[in-house]
Specification:
- Helices cover 35% and strands 26% of the residues.
- The protein starts with a strand and ends with a helix.
- It has 2 domains: 86 residues, RRM (RNA recognition motif) domain (Alpha-Beta Plaits, 2-Layer Sandwich), CATH 3.30.70; 32 residues.
- By secondary structure, it is α+β, with helices and mostly antiparallel strands.
- 9% of the residues are buried.
- Strands 3-7-4 form a 3-stranded antiparallel sheet. A two-stranded antiparallel ribbon has the order 1-2. Strands 5-6 form a two-stranded antiparallel ribbon.
- The longest helix has 29 residues.
Length: 136
């Protein structure tokens, strides 16, 4: 737990959520973070700015209600119903030009590795054709 010098609020590190929906939101500079239910929007903005060195322009929060689950207290006992814990998520929009580098890998490596894979595939096909001709 880190302590913020200005406001005496204990800040905790938050990690972005890695789902298909959150990847889609990243195209609009929106990142999704699971947070504590007691965290306010101002506190969430400070945590993200401090941890990732970016500028936050907007924070939206939602609380996802826990699902009902059945449980049993034994073989012949009547099963009961309980609820899972509620979860709070923050949708944080960053300033234009800022981005969170957590999920990215260098683009140069991607391009070269894709090109190299295509070349290797072509050479393998050629080798297979040549081997077939030699057998005849």
């Amino acid at each position: 737990m880190a302590k913020d010098d200005k406001t005496n609020i204990k800040l905790h590190l938050i990690e972005p959520r890695a789902t298909e929906k959150s990847y889609l939101e990243q195209t609009n500079r929106i990142y999704v973070f699971p947070v504590k239910k007691s965290d306010s929007k101002q506190k969430i903005a400070k945590m993200v700015e401090k941890d990732y060195e970016v500028t936050v322009t907007d924070v939206k929060t939602l609380i996802r209600k826990g699902k009902k689950t059945k449980f049993s207290k034994g073989k012949h006992a009547y099963p009961g119903i309980t609820h899972r814990q509620d979860k709070k998520f923050a949708y944080v929009r960053l300033k234009k030009g800022d981005s969170n580098k957590v999920f990215y890998e260098p683009e140069d490596d991607k391009k070269t590795s894709a090109k190299e894979a295509k070349k290797a595939e072509k050479t393998a096909k050629k080798a297979d054709k040549n081997a077939g001709k030699e057998n005849k």
